[in-house]
Amino acid sequence: MNGSVKTWSEKLGFELQQLGKYVTQIDKFHENYKDVEIKLIVGKSLVETIASHIEVMMRSKVDAIQRIMDVAESSALASSLIESEREQPIDESYTYKDAKNYSQVTTSYSEHFGGDVNLNYSAVHVPTTVYGRAKETLRAIRWSEELDNTFKYNYKQDPSLSWQYFGSSTGFMRHYPALHWKPNGSNPHDPDLFDCRTRSWYIEAANSPKDVLILVDTSGSMTGMRKEIARHVVNNILDTLGNNDYVNIVKFSNITEQAVPCFEDSLVQANLANIRELKIGIAEMNTERIANFSMILTYAFELLQEFRETRRGACCNQAIMLVTDGVPDNYKEIFQRFNWADSPENPDRADMPVRIFTYLIGREVADVRDSRWMACANRGYFVHLSTLAEVREQVLNYISVMARPLVLNLTTHPTVWTPVYADIADPKITDWLWDKKERNDQKERYWIYRRNKKLRNLPKELEQYVKRTKKNPNLAGDMYKYRLMTSVSMPVFDRRENANITEWVLIKNAYWVTETREVGRQKANANATS
Q1: Contact (Cβ atoms closer than 8 angstroms) between residue 414 and residue 205
Q2: Which of 132, 331, 362, 474 could make an S-S bridge to 126, C-beta 3.0–4.6 Å?
Q3: Element (H, E) at 385
Q4: 354 and 301 in contact (C-beta within 8 Å)?
Q5: Angle between the N-to-C axes of helices 147-157 and 43-86, in degrees from 0 to 180, rounded to the nearest 10
Q6: What pLDDT was estimated at residue 472?
Q7: How far is 370 from 327, CA to CA, in rounded Å?
Q8: What pLDDT score was predicted for residue 482?
Q9: Rounded CA gap, 390 and 295, in Å?
């Protein structure tokens, strides 16, 4: 009996061994690797080799952006000198390659770029909120044509480059290679929400990291259109913040209310998740009572001072954004205590840790003196808003103000690498795309229940639905494929010593006149992605 069991076990073992060889193809595996030579590799040497290759790759991208920056600055300066000598206005009949005008851009498929492009020239994208025929915009678009040769040279030197951009402070973006612009990457008939000035590569190159505290007046007078404009202002400010910034929103009347309760008495990183929560929190605003500006300004300065002293937050610039329909006083004593502490009587000599930006809401607001003074006396910017259409352009003005310390030093061009992001027209629209996908999922599940009222086939059909969504998570909705990439950007300075701007000035609270004044240098940004 023992012999029989032994024979059975040996036969079973042999059969299992042969089955394992057949299933795993172990003999072919040995055959393929019989000539393999095993070498001892030192981990440190391997890491150093990888680091060296990464350094070479990154250096080639930085060299490319350096060339774009040099050509952009020299072309802008040469163009301004020629125009000042001739004193001739720009030709109104001038046209450029508009990425939205498909008849102006011919394309062919490129495997490297994953779509139809034209490698012979660049195209220009102008945001919906920017007038493309404005003189300043046309001047910048014209001289930026000089970048085409640089774009092509960069791509020839480094074929691994993806897109190359030049983003102007006037709003337009020149991108190489040229392509047919499709809003949000899909349907050309969708609304175009893209603005290069709200992209992370532009924002992070244009500004140093900052702590931003947004104060929203919710007193009884902030009703109707004023409340809508205020909410729009806050949303646009949030759109200009990046991962290096810290932010919070406080609604106030004679009491304070946090837009997001769990963010109370703090500043949070301005990532997409936190920005989403803040936008949801500001969607509902109950307007009542009377605004107490002394209380809210004191609270804001104390919170920013705490973050400054404890080295939390961005540990760099700080700003207060005040959104209101009017202030009854200039609150000079509060600024002397918190912002001009080292020179209370002479603020021009004070080392101000916080800039003040005031956004005055309402067409019928006549007295703007205190709101303007608060911003100007604290090295900020004043904006008077009366319509929703002007909000985006006016809000973006604060970026150039926050960039002043960097712009004053023309010799320093910091190189900024962005985190990995999706190749999507507007990252902010990902929330909308995700909500759309969730609604389509819910709709499909609802019809599954409707088709199976007696619940006989429901478990089986639901199981099939789950398998389909796991296999292809983009089945529901028209979510399209995109690539993950990182960008390197560098600020481009206006090398002119001075420039003139014209603005409207209220005289004696009675009438408006235009006033031309001399201002400092302006700024744009160059970018390359890989």
Answers
A1: yes
A2: 132
A3: strand 381-385
A4: yes
A5: 160
A6: 55
A7: 7
A8: 61
A9: 30
User: In which residue are the tokens 């919070």 written?
Assistant: 248
Amino acid identity, position 299: Y
SS3 label, residue 360: strand
Short-list 407, 66, 402, CA closest to 207: 402
Cβ-count burial of 153 within 10 angstroms (0-12 exposed, 13-18 middle, 19+ buried)? middle
* DSSP character at residue 268: E
Q: Given this model, what pLDDT does residue 474 score?
A: 47
Q: Which CATH architecture has domain 208-402?
A: 3-Layer(aba) Sandwich (3.40)
The pTM of this model reads 0.76
Three-state secondary structure along 405-439? HHHCCCCCCCCEECCCEECCCCHHHHHHHHHHHHH
Tokens of 179: 């392509």
CA dihedral for 215, 216, 220, 221, sign (positive or negative): positive
355 sits in which H/E element: strand 355-361
Whole-number Å distance between alpha carbons of 522 and 509: 31
302 Cβ neighbours under 8 A, 6+ residues apart: 338
Q: Mean pLDDT, consecutive 10-residue segments, the chain of 530 residues?
A: 74 84 80 78 89 91 93 88 60 83 90 89 91 87 93 93 90 93 66 83 87 95 92 93 93 93 93 90 90 95 95 92 93 94 86 94 84 93 91 89 78 82 60 69 72 59 60 47 78 71 52 49 59
φ, ψ dihedrals at 410, nearest 5°: -70, -20
Residue for token pair 């390659």: 97
Do the beta carbons of residue 54 and residue 46 sit within 8 Å?
no
The answer to whether the beta carbons of residues 376 and 382 sit under 8 Å apart is yes
pLDDT for res 462: 59
Count the Cβ atoms, other than its own, within 10 Å of residue 212. 27
> Residue 511 burial (CB < 10 Å; 0-12/13-18/19+)?
exposed
Locate the domains of the chain by residue range: 50-201+487-495+523-529, 208-402, 425-481
For residue 466, what are the CA distances in angstroms to 101, 438, 474, 481?
42, 14, 13, 21
Q: What is the pLDDT of residue 83?
A: 63
pLDDT of residue 131: 87
Residue 518: predicted pLDDT: 41
- The whole-angstrom separation of Cα 248 and Cα 264 is 8
344, 346, 351, 352 alpha-carbon torsion, rounded to 10°: 70
DSSP 8-state class, residue 391? H
Residue 161 to residue 183: CA distance in whole angstroms: 23
**Mapped to the 3 state alphabet, what secondary structure does 138-156 carry?**
HHHHHHHHHHHHHHHHHHH
